[in-house]
Specification:
The chain is mainly alpha-helical. It contains three helices and no strands.
């Protein structure tokens, strides 16, 4: 009879571990970029800067011979900013998601340990 009780508790532990593993596998990880830092934003920024330079050239604020060079330089700066901001956001999101994932695993482990402790107390072991 004692062997049967041990076998059932081992089976229940295995079943609980399966539930724990399935809960971890179902944890969603959002790999998207936050907010308005999308490719559409950066394309709009490049277009807006190009238009601003064109208006500045029409108004005589920028020399017409340097418009092309200025447009290329500003577009390159915006492209570099896009890479820096996008990579920084991706790294930040990855680190935040990993931390949240670790916290969820710890919560599940603590809940499991609590359930095991309660069952040990109930069974008098």
């Amino acid at each position: 009879m004692a062997g049967t009780a041990n076998k059932k508790s081992v089976e229940s532990v295995v079943a609980e571990l399966r539930v724990l593993n399935s809960a971890v596998e179902e944890t969603p990880v959002d790999a998207g970029i936050l907010g308005w830092f999308t490719p559409d934003f950066w394309a709009t920024a490049v277009t807006a800067v190009g238009n601003i330079i064109a208006v500045a050239a029409i108004l005589g604020w920028v020399d017409k011979t340097s418009v092309d060079g200025l447009t290329v330089a500003v577009t390159a700066v915006i492209g570099a900013a896009e890479v820096i901001v996008t990579n920084s956001l991706l790294i930040w999101k990855y680190l935040a998601a990993r931390q949240e994932f670790r916290l969820r695993i710890m919560d599940k482990k603590f809940a499991y340990m609590e359930a095991v402790a309660v069952e040990k107390i109930r069974s008098g072991k």
